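Re-running the complex after MR caught last week's input typo. The corrected sequence lines follow. Everything else is unchanged.
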Amino acid sequence: MARTGPARWSSLRAGPLHLGAVLLVVTLLAFLLVELLPGDAAEALLGERATPDALAAARAELRLDDPLPLRYLRWLGAAASGDLGRSMRTDESVLTLLGERLPVSIELVILAQIVALALAVPAALLSAWRRGGWLDRATRLAGFALMSLPGYVGALLLILVFALHLQWLPAAGFAPWSAGAGAHVRSLALPALALACVEAPLYLRVLRNDLVEVLGSDFVRAARARGVPPARVLVVHALRPAAFTLLTLLGLSSGNLIGGAVIMENAFALPGLGRLLADAVYARDVAVIQGAVLVIALVYVLIHIAVELGYRRLDPRLRRMHAG
Amino acid sequence: MQADVHHAQTIDTARPSWGVRCAAGWMVVIALLALAAPSLPIDDPARIDLAARNAPPGAGHWLGTDALGRDLLARVIHGARVSLLVGLVAPAIGLALGGAIGLLAGFRRGWLDAIVGVMVDALLAFPALILALIASVYVGRGVDSMIATLTVLSVPACARVARSAALATSQLGYVEAARAGGASEMRILWRHVLPNAMPRLATFGLLLVALMIVVEGALGFLGLGVAPPAPSWGGMIAEGRAQLEDAPQVCLAPAAVLFATVLSLNVLGELRRARTRD
Amino acid sequence: MCRKNATSARTLTSSPKARTACVLLGLIAGVIAQPATGGAAPAALRVGIESEIQGFDPLRTPVMGVATLTVARALFDTLVELDSEGHIEPALALRLEPAADLMSWTATLRPDVVFHDGTPFDAAAVAGHYSRLLDPANKCACRSFIGPIARVVAVDAHTVRFELSRPWAALPAVLGEPSVVSLIGSPRAVADTAREFQRNPVGTGPFALEQWTSGDRVVVRREPRHWRAASPTLEGIEFRVLPDEQTRLAALRSGELDVIWTQSPASALKARSEKLAVQTQVGAGARLLVLNTRVTPLDDANVRRAFSLAIDPVELARVFSEGLAPPVTDPFGPKTAFACPASDGVRHDLDAARKLLRDYGKPVHLKLLHTNTPRGLEAAQIMQAMWGAAGAEIELVPVEQGQLVQRVLKGDYEIGAWRIRDSFDPDPDLYGLLQSQSPFNVTGLRSEAIDRLLVEGRTQLDLTERRATYCRLSRALADEAPFVYLAPNIYFAVSGPRVQGTPGLPGGILDLRTLSLAR
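Corrected-run output:
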C-alpha cells in the first residue's frame, strides 16, 4: 500500500446510508452527552440547595421522568422545527444565539482555510519542484516545527508580535461588518492567521509528497519529455491530481478547524460558536450546549457531503489514477 | 527512476541525526525531571510570594516568577508531571482498547465493522477539543478526569488506525489462505494481523502522545484543566497571557517547554515512521 | 530537473496558482496596512467594558452589574442625581422634598419629558414603575432596596408622593443613584409582552438602544429630544464587551477604543505612564468574600473568625490596589463619611487563626466560588494560599459572572465572591445584605443585634448619630465575621486622545454624557 492517506480516508467515500447513520448517531450523542451528566437538568436549574419538592416539581415540568428514547425523539422533533430551547443564563432562544454566533465562526474558518492554502500551496509547489534542495529542506523543517506548535501558543506569539509590539492589528475583539469592511477583516486577520498556522503545515506536507509522487510518475515525465513548460507541468498535470488529496484534506480539517476555532475565539475574544460553547460548558447551560454541539456536528457531516460532491466533479480518470 | 520514486515521506532522511538525538535527549530530561520533581531542590510550585511578582529570570528564580510570585521553573517542572502522565496514560489505554476494537472490526468485517465504523466516524465527527470540553466539565477537574477525557478521544482514533491496518493485512494472500484453510480467527489475529499492525500503531501512538499533551494544554488554556494551584502548562500559558507584554516569561517559559516536548515527540514519531517504511 | 533555476523562477510566477496566491497575500497586506482607526474617524464614542450586559428589566435582573448600569445610564434617567458630594440635583424631578413628619417625600416632575417610544413621562409612569417593583405578586428581589417605601402615589400629572413606613434618610440617594430601582422605563414598553423589556429597553435618557449583540457589543444612538438643555454632542456610543483586561487596554492604546473602564491598578499605572488620561475613583463599599453561614463548618462563628484572622489586609491592598488605595477593614470603604477607624475593623493574626481551626477539631475543606476572569482567579489563588497557611483546604470553582451572582443569591455556594456597591448611602446595600429576612442576605446570617443596628442606621437622620451606629455595626460584623474583605471598590476610566471632557465615575459607573469627540 502506497500510503495510509487516501486509503484511510476512503471511509469518507461511503454512501448516503453511512452518512445518514453518522448523522443519527451524532444527534443521539449530542442529546446523551448532556443527559447523562451527574445531577439532572432540574438540579442544574435549581441548585444544590433545592428542596426535594421543588426538584420534583421541576422534573415534572421538564418531563424528565419520561423514558429516554421518548425524550430524545421529542428533543429531535423540537430541534427539527427550530426549537432548541432557551439559554439558562440569558433566556434567549438558543436558535437565535446560534444564528448570531455561527456566521462568525464560519467566516473565521473559511478565512483560515484560504490563508492556509495561500501559505501551503506555493510552498508545496516550490518544495516539490526543487525536491531535495535547500528550499525543500528548509520548508519541510519549518512546516514540521509549525506543526508541533500548539494553536494557542502560536496565537499568543502572534498577538505578542503583531498586536502588542508592532501594533499593526488588534489584539482581540471583533468588528462586525457594520463597523466597516476594513475593521472587520482586520479583527479577523490575526485569528485566521493563527488558525491557518495550525493546518497549513499538514497541507504543505501532504501536498508536497503528493506532488513529488505525481511529478515522478510516467505520465508527467512523458509530458516533460514532450517539452511542456515546467509551470504548466506543475499546475495542469501535477496540481490537478494532487487537488484530489487537497480536497480530502480540506474537508477533514474543516472539522478540526472548528475545534481550533474554540481556542482562537477564546484567545481573540471573538463572539463565535466556539466561545459560546465554552461559556455554556462553564455555566452548564444545557440547552445551549446541546444546540451548539448539534450544529457543529451537522456542519461537519455537511462538509463531508460537500467533499464527496467535490470528488464527483473532479475527473473520474484522475480519481482512478490516484487510487490505483 | 529509483531516485525519483524514492520520495522522502519523512523529514528524517533530510534531517541530520543530531536532531533526533536532541529530541530523544530532551524527552529523557523532561521525563526524569517530571519523575523526580518532588525531590528536586526547587521551590514549592504553589508558594505565593506577593513581594516578587512577575520577576524576570534572575538569581533566585532561574525562569522568573509568575503573577503571584511563584517560581516558574518549579511550576514548569511540576506541570510536566501532569502533562506527561496524562499524555502517556490516555494513549496507552486508547491503544489497548481502541486497537483491540479496531483490529477486530477490520479483520472480521461484516456488521461489527459497520457498527464500529459508524461509531468511530460519529465520535470523530466531534472535533476532538469539543468532545474534551464537554467531557471535562461533567467529569470534573483533576488528573483522573483529564485522563478519562483524553482516553475518550484516543480510543476512536486508535480504532480507526487499527481497523485500516487490519483491513490491509486481512487482504494479504497468506492470511486469506490461512482463513480458508480453517485456522481459528483468534490465532490469525494474534499471529499475523497484530504483528503486522504493531509498527503502524506504535508510530501512531507516539504522535498521539504529542497530540494528547497539546489537547491537555488546550483544556488548561481554556480554564478547564487541572484545578489550581496545581500547575499545568496550558493553565500557565493562559494565566501568563495577562502579563504578555510586561513579563512575557510567564507565558513563554511553559510555552517553550511545551513546544520542545511536542516537537521532540513528533521527531521521534517521524523516525519510527521512516524506519517502518524502509 | 534539467531546467535552469532562472527559467523555473520566471515560469513559476506566471503560473495562475502562484498569481492567485500573490494576489491574496497582497490583499491581506493591503488590509493590514490600513491605519488603525480605519478610513474616516467614527462619530460614535467607543467604550470598552468588562462584562456582558445582563438585561434591563428589574424583575428579571435582580442585581445589575457595573457594565449593565453603565449602558443603562445612557438609556435611562433617574428622578434626581447626586453630585460628587452627595447633594441632590434635579433630573427627571425638579424638586424632591420630605414632608414635615418625614413619613413621605414629594417629587415634582419635570414637564414635557417623553420616553423614546413617545409615551409621555408623567406621575403615572413613575408610580407605575415603583408599584410594579413593590407589588408582592411580582416577587422582585429589589424590594429590599426600597423596603421602607410603602406606596408610591401619583398626586397629579406631575407630582408623585413616596409614602414611607418609617423615616428614611437614604431615599434621595436611592432615587438618585443608577440602579435597578431608580432607572425608570416606559410603562408601555414594560407592559408590552411581545417585545421583552429585558432586551428592548425604552427610557428617557440621552441615548436610545440601537443594537445589542450578545457577548459582543451594545450600540446606542443619540436621542435628540432629550430634556437636558446641553445635549451631548456624541452621535452615539458603542459599548464593547472585552472581558480580557489586556485586550481592553491594548485596544485603547491602539486607537480602537476611546474610553475604557477598568478595575486593574496595573492597567491604570501603565496608562498613566503613557500619558493617557486616567480618572480614579476610590469608592464606598468593598470587594469581599461572603461566607455561607448555612454550611458546615461556616455555621461556627469561630471558623469564620479564623478565616478573617488568616488574611493580611495590608498585603491584599498591595496586590489588589498596587498602593493606589488603603486596605479595607469594614464594609463602608476607606474614604467615605461612614468610614470607621481601623481598630474597629478586622485584625490579622495567623497564629490565632490556626488555633481556632485546630480547636474546631474537624478538617475544614471548602469550595471558593469565583469569577473565571484572570483577576478573579488571581484573587482566589491568593486566598487559597492564605487560608491554606491557616490549615484550611480550599478548592477553587471558577464560574461565569452571571452564574456566580445567581448561585450566591440562591445560596448555592460555600464561599463566594461578592461586592458591596459604591453608593452614597450604605443603608440600602447593607440592609439588603444583612437583614435577616432580606432576599439579598446571601450569607444567611441572622443576628438580632445587627438587625437592630440596621434599622437604627436607616431611620436616624442625624449624620453623627448614623456614623456612630454604623461603627457599632462594623464591630458587630467583625465579631460575626460573615465577610472577608479583599479590596475597596476602586475604578478607573482611561480616555484616549480623541476624547474631550472627563468621564465621571460616580459609584464606579462610567458617566459619559458630558463627553465629546475631537474632530
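None of the earlier attempt is carried over here. Chain C has two domains: 16-207+496-517, 286-489. Chain C has a mean pLDDT of 84.
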